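re: that chain from earlier
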Amino acid sequence: MRSHAPVIRRLLDSGLDFALYRFPGQEEPCLVLQLEGEASVVSDTEEPEGFILAPFAETEMTPTLLIRPDVAVRGWELIDLHTRKLPHRRISLSNIPLVRTETDIEKSNTYKVAYRTFKYQLDKENYQKLVLSYAEQCEWDGAGHEDRVFIKAMADYPDSMVSLVYVKAAGRWIGCTPELLLEGYGDKWHTMALAGTMDSWKTGWSQKNIREQALVTDYIEGQLQGLGARILREGPYTTRAGALAHLRTDFTFHLQRQLSPYHIARILHPTPAVCGLPKDEAWHFIRLFERNRRLYYAGYLGPINLKGETDLYVNIRCANIRPGGKALFFAGGGLTRDSSFQDERTEVRHKLETLKDLY
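^ sequence. v structure.
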């Protein structure tokens, strides 16, 4: 079988902003490549067209970015054709400085303190759900070999969106996410509620996971009803992403009036699956007390208004490649009153291993 790693290597060595991605259930990837200049910052007033990379929370350091589709093709043959004459430049892996880094969640006092802070608020019933994330930087053999990691992720995670994105302003990101934020065109759309996690070999969902899934599902359905949508709901049912299983509910919805995909995405993002409930209050609480800078983790990414279609996914199970052969891995878990520290820490550790184990 022909190796596609050299094709990806050309992109990595070009210094150009690009997004290489493979949708769930598909065999070959797509490429959006910007041949000149840098990805632009998306404003609230425009309707973007290209590949979008949005953070969990917009800041001056982490704006929403758009890769212009100077090249937008699907399939290895066309990607090979359009990358044969790319330049070879020195790459700046990341322009985003880190305030602090963790190296092992089992030894992390920062995660333990943050968990206690979050759980106290849940026990006081100030929130129904809060999502606590964690970022762990370590040396990783996959750093510098993202071409091989991407190809292995495509094989190991057929039901996830696999992505490899480089933007000068945000650095190099690789991920495999099972969580759809929004797909469709015109007035016909699809989204999902994905919450609850356990090892894929286990059977039977805990009450904590069932309740968490119900909270997320009810919120998303309410948001869609607020848009005046006609909704078809399917689930919840168990879906698997590698070694982990999740509870998932699908929503197919039709809008009475046509809204732009960027407008719909901004209404849905961040979903309670990566934030909490009540959403606005949870978002502010996370920003104040999480102790972890999420950057583009728990944001969203994907083609938007590209050839008339939009396919946006929540950026979970991802890593930011850092200088010196290191990577910053991100994961998180939804906390409720039923959560236990050991279970939540174990869940986050398993999610971190999703990418780590690919090389």
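The chain has one domain: 5-356.
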